[in-house]
Amino acid sequence: MKLEASTTRGHVVTLIFVISRFHFITALGFSIDLIHRDFLQSPSLIISSSQIVLINALRRSFKTLKQDTSADILSDKGEYLMKFSLGTPPVETFAVADTGSDLTWIQCNPCTNCFQQNAPLFEPTLSSTYKPLSCAPVSCNYLLATAYCEDTCRYAIGYGDQSFSKGHLATETITLGSVSIPNVIVGCGHDDRGSFGASASGIVGLGGGKTSLINQLRSLTKGKFSYCLGSHVAYPSKLSFGDDAVVVSGDAVVVTTAIITKTPTTFYYLTLEGISVGNQRIDYYHIHTPSTSNGKGDQGNIIIDSGTTLTFLPIQLYNQVIAAVKVQMKMKEMKDPEGLLSLCYNSRWHWAPTYPQFVLHFKGADLKLKTGNIFVKTRRDCVCVGLAATSSEAIYGNLAQMDFLVGYDLETMTLSFKPQDCTKA
Question: Which residue out of 38, 72, 76, 98 is catalytically annotated?
Fold first, then answer.
C-alpha cells in the first residue's frame, strides 16, 4: 500500500527499559513491573541525565553484533532485569530477561570463575527443593542443545558478546511475587563470564525453546505473554502473562502479524514486507533468509527482540531507508558525538522539528511508529536515526517497540501491537 505524504511532530525519546515484581497473580494471568538495569545502579543519574542510559544501551547493542552466527546476535545482556526468588526458602535475585535465549540460570556456590554480582551466590545445598537433573529418562541435550551428561545433566552456553555460563542443570522452585512454581528447569552456573552488571546474577530465558520460562509456564499462561516498554525510566513498565497478556483493542487500533516457526526455535521471527518513510515506501531487500524445514523460505526475515536496543536492517534496505530520511529531513547533518549512529542532525536551533512518519509493514500489519521509536538524542543538540545495518539476521529492537503493548500468543502463533502509554499501563 502506497501511503500519502505524512509527518509527525513529537518528543524525541531517549530511553529504553528492564524487569521486577508482581502486582497480582491468578491461575490465569499475572503481571510484573519492568525496571531499567542502569536505574538500579544509579537512580539519580538516570533521572538527571537520560542520554547516558541510551548511550550505554547502544554500546551494548553494537557489541553483540561482532559475531557471525544469527543464534548469537540477540544475546544483548543488559536492558531488562527480572526480580524473582529461587529455592526453598526463597532467595531473592535479579537476572537479565532475554527473549533471545531459553535457559534460565544464575551463579551458584561454589563458583570457580564468576563475574562480580551484588547479591550473594545462590547456595543450592541450602534449598530443600533443589534437585540435580538426571540424565534419564530424557536425554540432557533433548532439553538443551548444549547440555551433556556427566553423572547428571550439565550445560555450557555462550552468547554473541563472549559471555558464557557453564554448570549443572537442575529443577528448582521459582517464586514470582507471592506464587511459587515448582520443578522449573534452571541452570546453576559455576563458571561464568560476561558483560553483566553487578545487579544481575544470571539470565532469565524468555525465548521459544523447550527450556524457556515461557514454555515451562505454558500450562498456566496458555502460551500468552506481553510487555509494554515505557519511554521514561522513572516509571515502571509491564510484563504480563496469561489472560493479563491478551491485547484488547479498546480505543486504540490493534494490528496483528504471524510468528513464523524457524530454526533455532528460540527466536520469534516475523515477516517484514517493507518500510515507509513519509510518503516513500521501500520494499524489503531480501539478502539472506535461512532455509526452513517447512519450506516457508522468505517468511520470517526479521527477529523481534526486547533485549536489543536498535533495529538492525539488511545493508541495502538500511541504505535506502537512510536515503529517504535525508531527502525529507530539513535539519543540518552532524556526526554523532558518541560515534555510534551513522545519521545525525543538529537540533540546536529547531524548537519544534518535523520528522517523517515511519511505518513498518509486517505481513498483515502496518505498524505506525512514533517519533521517539526512531529518532533519539545522544546529546542535547544531536538527534540521530536509531537504525543500524547488519549483514546477519535482521532485528526489530526495543527502541522501536517503546510505548506499544506487544502481545505474544504462542497458541495461535501471532504477535499483536497496540499503541499505549506504557508508563500508565
Answer: 98
